[in-house]
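Sample 3 of the quickstart, ligand magnesium ion:
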Amino acid sequence: MSSGYFPPNLLPGPGRVLAVFLDVALGRTGEAGIYSGTLATHTLASLWRVYAGFLVGIGLGIFLGLLMGLFLWAERALNLSIQVLRNIPITAWRPLAIIFFGLADRPAIFLIALGAFFPSVMNTIHGVKGTDRIVVKAGLMMGMNQEQLLRLIVLPSALPAIFTGVRLSMGISWMLVILGYLLLDANYAFRTDVVIAMMLNIGIAGYLSDRLLLLLRHSLLGWTRGVSIGG
Amino acid sequence: MAEITLDRLGKLYPTGRAATRALEEVSLKIGDGQFVSVVGPSGCGKTTLLNLIAGFERSTSGRVLVDGRPVERPGPDRGVVFQEPGLLPWLSTRENIAIGMRIQGRGKAEIEARVTGLLQAMGLLPFRDCYPFELSGGMRQRVAIARALALDPRVLLMDEPFGALDAMTREIMQELLLRIWEEDQKTVLFVTHDLEEAILLSDLVFIMTARPGRLKREIPVPLPRPRHYSMVTSEVFVKIKAQTLELIREESLRAMREEEGVEG
Ligand SMILES: Nc1ncnc2c1ncn2[C@@H]1O[C@H](COP(=O)(O)OP(=O)(O)OP(=O)(O)O)[C@@H](O)[C@H]1O
Ligand SMILES: [Mg+2]
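Result:
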């Protein structure tokens, strides 16, 4: 079943990966060695890291994005830092994350939050600034105050863009959790089959998370059917 | 109950090195319940004028008075219909019409009754639960008019509201607007570049000069009410149209010459 070019312990075939995946999930055959039956624990641990980091990242991103989209002073104060920081690969923060937060979950959550932050903040700014001026004028004509303008006009009109950002953030969060695994656990280096099984697991979890977001989007943003293409 | 007075109104936009003089020394009076139109070459400040009366912008000189009080901010006493519909895309037809009254804190029953009445008058009843993207351009503009009327404003400001519609739909919309206006005589200021439209609808047509926009001429339209589309062939209409056309041509030519001058 292995692809003839590589020895099976370096590049296991799909059958082997499936068998290992099942053992990691169910712990029946022991083919995954010390990882046998660890899927639930692993998945729960990743879910916790991903969602904690994701929520912190998008929370901060949306909040600062709204501020920067609405107020020139906020944009002036933050824009340069964000534009510089967002070019740094998230993985480059790993040593600093460990210095700041020690080991275990907290540095991983920090890295995921950081990765989730940038798409959310950029897209929120874009969404707020894209608010149709005429629609804002219409709100003013109706006598809306600042709070009503924000809640009834700016937020809903920025929501599709915010959602796009949040979706990208979700993808990045799962990508970072994979990196976390591969880098943290040296044992993986000798078990390519387990690594691929874990990649598969995380890929599926990430996909399901995205479907969840799309479901939420669909119920919240039905009106964009005629405005956006696909998605 | 709503008189509009513009007192030597001026508006400068600080653009680049030299400021744009959009409006200069515009003084005019619109009587209560009058239907007036503003025509003039492109870029002469018609939208600016409307924005100043609506309160979206502040003048750089002179004053806007509505019923003797200076305009300081937009408000539901001055309904605006924009050149584009500007509907809230996430609200249905019904909700788009109702939202203004909600902001005003009107009661549920009153909102319901008024929205239904407007849906009926505008022929939008079958589309009450559609979102804007599901409507045609003409329907959207009708929702925009209904939305402004829902506020029961004393003044209605309309910026080329039918500009994007085809001739047939436009004609229907004009008649609809006239019927509504005849029923509860609001003070209407109607911006258009369609001279026939201006004459057919209005008591008074204001012709503006090329930029900086000033008042060039004020032409009363002595056609009887109720107006009807067939009047466009009447002698009075034809005479007024010829007279206004000449004035507009002068200004449009002047505007184009000036633009060339600026570029050269
Ligand atoms: N916000 C703005 N900032 C700077 N200049 C502006 C602004 N709004 C309008 N102007 C300028 O003021 C002048 C008048 O513009 P306005 O939109 O009022 O013209 P208009 O008569 O409505 O033209 P049109 O018939 O093409 O709609 C134009 O020269 C325009 O460039
Ligand atoms: Mg205009």
